[in-house]
């Protein structure tokens, strides 16, 4: 037996650790997303058993992620829980298509600043929203509203003993998670999030505290296979924007997580297209079950590697433990205080904000830091999908601007022709600078324009240079002499007339 599975012991122990980390996160993400807690466990089970058995990234663990909480909550609010399955199903099918078409590896080309900005924006919205949940208060719908309403929410909580008690449970949960890392290593074998939830549950029961707890419907009771009405929502253009957002953001988060996990171990490297297919298969099944969307989750994945996992058996076993827990002990979920789950997510949201990366980027690449901040602010101010699009657009513009670097040198010896040298990449983005310099040349002097140093000359610049040369070559002035690279086709050469 051991000869067939040489790492069975390491994988078994790692699966227990990942299971203990996954339980509070699965439940917390589901509650924060506005769906029954069991749906989070179903996604965790599918992520462990189904996605876990497939090829891609051997040690990466999938399940419901805090990073999609905001988007899922918005989708549930707009389309309803019954339609969530259709959204996740078609997002999964889109991921499968991208994987089979070999698009998975291209996600590595997405600007890291945009991804970090996305996580930062998500983290801010999660923190703001879960503070309301921790106090037992209703949160405003928009990200700006959540943040702007915090002073008023704290004022309301101070005048309400029930809200204060609930807030204290949430704050205590965060304190336990933070301080747990300072405990002896033997104690830290129990994950801090799990310890915090257990302590909060014990305190709530022991002192009969008036705080809300998780609503339990049973594992089979929450499975909602999409019906005809749900599929009818596909006629709405708005739902397709949400489907694309689910697919792209879940894929980006999963594949960036895979790259991060690869840096944590010396085992097989991630096969990105196969990992995309695995994620797509998992989300397709989650959609058919009406569950939450899944992504690879860096918290669970890093816990898996740190616990000594060697093969994908650890993540499959963690899915088995989730299934057994959800089937045999659903009553345990009903004991968990909601403010404790809110505290876990506030801590998770805080960890999504890349404080160190922002500082390092600002010192070395201010443009990238600006993209990160704008992406985060856009997500808070507008929504997840449009915020990411704004960040991507800024990244493309910045890259185009930097790629169009052009050097213009004017040599005027006082007599004879004025010599102008252009080198680099002349695109429409640099056209104002080029024309300002050329139009400032004396009109009554001959000009020699040397373009042989250009690597690229776009159509807009070529046309503008021809028009300038024609204007400069007026009566009484020698025609502009243009020198281009010998590799430039004759049909594309700049003419002076």
From TrEMBL:
Q: Membrane topology type, per the record?
A: Multi-pass membrane protein
Domain SLC26A/SulP transporter residues, every copy: 8-375
Q: Where are the transmembrane segments?
A: 12-32, 79-103, 115-137, 157-180, 192-212, 238-261, 281-299, 319-348, 369-394
Which keywords belong to this entry?
Answer: Membrane, Transmembrane, Transmembrane helix
Q: What is its main location?
A: membrane
Which compartments does it reside in? Membrane
Highest rank taxon of the organism: Bacteria
- The UniProt entry's coiled-coil ranges are none
On whether Transmembrane is a keyword of this UniProt record, the answer is yes
Tell me the segments the record calls region Disordered.
475-497
Mind telling me which PANTHER family this protein's record contains?
Answer: SULFATE TRANSPORTER
Name the record gives this protein: SulP family inorganic anion transporter
